[in-house]
């Protein structure tokens, strides 16, 4: 996951810093030793860092002890789920209501994103402004429609997008479903599952057979949903945030 050979202990995150108005970095480690902690703290002081993200492996006791002792706060469990499409018969649900997104959908999709992603490490961390946390996902879905994602599939109700699924293919030819959102009044009707099926069908057509998605350990409904769609848990990691001064 991380590159210890490079000698880089942390990386400044320009986009996060500009968006939240705080100097934010990410530790380039998935484990911690006392020496790592000292190096990260020194680097953070030199770079005037307000907050550092640290994504930790779950099976290293020393890492957890070092993080807790040095003031890192657990803000999320990162659960990665995966599906192998070579072993899963993917037959996209044929439904005329499932279509590709259009830029004219962005306003509707932003409204859905603003209320669908409140179980996240940013909402858990009270140092971040609540409205900014909502806007993060609104910006994410807008950028996805404008080309960040390879495909954004939406559920259409009388020319109005009421749900979305984003599909991304990385340079290593692996697929990921980054965002799933359903308008509150449409939840429980099965449209999310149809859009997931549509996205998996798209990946299969592109000969992308390894697909992952990520959710939060506290989001039991999301984990149950993905498992019903054929995904299984691949890994669990720990998201920590450390603040170097009171905000």
Round the Cα radius of gyration to an integer and report it.
19 Å
Provide the helix percentage: 25-40%
- Which class of secondary structure composition applies to the elements? alpha+beta
Judging from the principal axes of the Cα atoms, what is the shape?
Answer: globular
Strand order of the largest sheet: 1-2-3-10-4-9-8-7-6-5
Order of helical and strand elements? EHEHEHEEHHHEEEHEHE
Q: Distance N terminus to C terminus?
A: 30 Å
The main β sheet shows up as: 10 strands, mixed
Task: Look at the structure and give the mean pLDDT.
Answer: 93
* Number of helical stretches of at least 4 residues: 8
Poorly predicted regions are: none
Portion of residues in beta strands equals 25-35%
Could you give the count of β-strands? Answer: 10
Assembly context of the chains: single chain
Features:
247 residues, alpha+beta, ten-stranded mixed beta sheet, 10 strands
What is the structure about, briefly put?
The chain is of the alpha+beta class and 247 residues long. The protein has eight helices and ten strands.
Structure description:
The chain has helices at residues 14-20, 34-46, 61-69, 106-116, 121-124, 130-148, 191-205, 220-228, and strands at 10-12, 24-27, 51-57, 73-84, 98-100, 151-156, 161-169, 175-182, 210-216, 232-243. The mean pLDDT is 93. α4 packs across α6 (130-148). The protein is α+β, with helices and mostly antiparallel strands and 247 residues long. The chain has eight helices and ten strands. β8 (175-182), α7 (191-205) and β9 (210-216) form a beta-alpha-beta unit. The protein has a ten-stranded mixed sheet with strand order 1-2-3-10-4-9-8-7-6-5, sandwiched between helices. The protein is globular and about 55 Å long.
């Amino acid at each position: 996951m991380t590159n210890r050979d490079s000698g880089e202990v942390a990386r400044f995150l320009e986009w996060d810093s500009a968006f939240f108005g705080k100097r934010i970095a990410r530790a380039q480690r998935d484990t911690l030793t006392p020496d790592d902690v000292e190096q990260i703290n020194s680097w953070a002081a030199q770079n005037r860092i307000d907050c550092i993200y640290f994504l930790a492996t779950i099976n290293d006791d020393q890492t957890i002890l070092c993080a807790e002792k040095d003031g890192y706060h657990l803000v999320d469990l990162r659960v990665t789920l995966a599906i192998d499409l070579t072993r899963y018969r993917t037959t996209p649900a044929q439904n005329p209501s499932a279509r590709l997104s259009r830029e004219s959908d962005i306003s509707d999709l932003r409204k859905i994103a603003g209320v669908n992603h409140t179980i996240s490490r940013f909402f858990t961390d009270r140092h971040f402004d609540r409205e900014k946390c909502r806007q993060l996902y609104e910006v994410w879905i807008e950028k996805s429609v404008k080309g960040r994602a390879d495909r954004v599939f939406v559920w259409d109700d009388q020319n109005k997008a009421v749900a979305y699924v984003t599909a991304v293919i990385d340079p290593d030819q692996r697929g990921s479903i980054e965002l799933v959102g359903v308008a509150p009044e449409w939840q429980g009707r099965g449209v999310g599952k149809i859009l997931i099926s549509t996205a998996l069908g798209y990946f299969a057509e592109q000969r992308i057979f390894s697909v992952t998605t990520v959710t939060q350990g506290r989001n039991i409904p999301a984990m149950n949903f993905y498992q019903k769609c054929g995904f299984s848990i691949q890994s669990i990691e720990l998201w920590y945030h450390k603040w170097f001064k009171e905000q």
